Amino acid sequence: MKRLAVLLLVAACGAPPHTIAFSDEWPTRVARFDDVSLAWTRVVKMRNGYEESLTLQATFKSPEWRAARIARDVRNAHMSDAAATDLVAKEQAALGDHYEVELLVTTWERRENDLDRGERSVWKVSLIDDDGTEVSPIEIVRDKRPREILLADFPEFGDFAVAYIAKFPKKTDLFRPGARKIGLHMWSARGGVELSWSRP
Which of 37, 50, 51, 117 has a C-alpha 20 to 30 A away from that of 66? Predict the structure, then answer.
């Protein structure tokens, strides 16, 4: 495990940008966090006439994304091998039974920015696998980490955005062999938006 942490650190310092890896396996080498995060982030806007009613930025926290973030944190904090190993184990455990997507949501009507209200929210969210099967979230909660930490992970976190963590059950393998696309659908009575992550 110590060797894994070192590999992640070295790779983060010098690997070139690359396309996203459709894999549920923990990587041993990753590119710079900024490049990996950009590759796993999608943004979409919804307008009603001239009014921009929704901006959604979604970052899929894949094993590759998590590994790149750890490599950045290990480097910035000058962590020991033991601390880096513990951090890797914690992140790997978080991947055990669910997929996780960070949602940065900005709405024209502030009262409609309510994804953490569960079934009472005006919005519905689902992941869509390569066959078109929709997967509803286990839960959506506010990401209450300090703003400076959120900005380090998500530099485009706007002044009026609210950050949420959406967890989806692994009842379908989004990264199964042959899968080429993962979608995310968010909709309300006002309309809906879709975005996707695709392998090359």
Answer: 117
Q: Mind listing the pLDDT tens digit for each residue in 129-188?
A: 999 999 999 999 999 999 999 999 998 898 899 999 999 999 889 999 999 999 999 999
- Around Cβ 6, how many Cβ atoms within 10 Å? 15
**54 and 45 Cβ atoms separated by less than 8 Å:** yes
CA angle 148, 154, 157 (to 5 degrees): 75
Domain locations in the chain as residue ranges:
2-198
What's the pTM? 0.87
End-to-end alpha-carbon separation of the chain, Å? Answer: 30
- Give the DSSP H/E element, type plus range, for residue 69: helix 63-77
CA 102 to centroid of chain Cα atoms? 4
H/E run at residue 12:
helix 2-14
Please give the helix or strand (H or E) that residue 107 lies within, else none: strand 98-107
Alpha-helical regions (H) of 78-146: 81-94
